[in-house]
Write the structure tokens for this entry.
Amino acid sequence: MLSVYEGFFSGGARILHSEVVRGLQEGDQHHRVLSIHGEVHREATRQRMEDDACYRSLTAAGVGVTSLGRVFPASGDQATFTGPELADTARATADADVILSLKEQPLRLLNQAGLPRRPVVVCLHRSDPENQGPALGELKAAIADGTVVACVCCAESTRVAYEAAGIPADLLHVIPNGVDLVRFRPDPARRLALRTALDVPAAAPVVVFAARYDAMKNVPLFLRAARVWLERKPGAHVLMCGAGMTAANPGLDADIEAAFGDDRRLADRLHLLGVRHDMEHVYAGADVVALTSSWGEAAPLCLVEGMMCGAVPVATDVGDSAAIVAGHGFVTPPDPEAVAQAWTEAAAARAALAPALASSRERFSRTRMIAAYAALIDGVHTRTSVPPALPEPH
């Protein structure tokens, strides 16, 4: 198996896919990863492949990872590849029985003429194919060519959106996201350790926002809600983590200034944590996991991870968010007052909702997810490796 990544940078899709690859590697499949970019500059963060937590987890599990060495963003036509790049890709794909494409963007590489022809399974992690630039066209071209033989949708909203965009329904398979239930669980020791490290009182209500700095996440809405909530709750704290969630990001600094104005006293209880590799501690230390996205979400990993650690999810109705939090949390309109009020209700309801969160754990298990991926891949390999039948003799 070969997985092709656009690059290694902080984000739920890469975390999820890397966990799938690790899980399949633990079974009877052999996996490798090819990354188009070796370094990515985005969300006001320089992200080198070798520094990435997913890269380290994959290599530690024995998964070979190589890169074409590109840096993003770069000048020139990103859809044009050099002879050496295509030669490296040909060597990587020649050894694979099946190729997994992490989202549709790597298809601009896999669609290049002259590469070994292998069946491709595209893993889709968004609900807005119309906002993916030329990638949707690359996906349609690869389907028409017969190269793409299946698409994994991480959410029902993904399946609906891509079918509406013209992708054949019989190619779309829904496999909901899952997480490691041993790692992501309520843990009083982790909760205390996280709060102690941040100087947050044990009884203080805490909201965590785990997202990269991107327009789809609607950070300004989150910050306006945070100001309302912090004004109403003098002892409360807000945690922001993810790529670009640092004081070094001028865009975030401007958003905070716009939301809090001259009253930076409230912002003293706003903690900018950046990229964290101990999210099980961060979620365990929180009462509420929040998401304020405006578009693009499918099955947000932060909601699942936070729920499994005991945080109550509060989200806008984008993608499958409402279905994920149903019975476990709250769905809000994109209004700061409404969001802040939902955070208050969620924090107060945390103990009452704990049994429902606990009983839903198997639904979100990594084991269930990986078994579904393995079954789909095995089916693709069986179908595509059967030699054509010989004609009947006359």
Remarks:
- The radius of gyration is 22 Å.
- The chain has two domains: 2-178+366-385, 188-362.
- The first helix runs from residue 12 to 26.
- The domain at 188-362 is CATH 3.40.50.2000 (Rossmann fold).
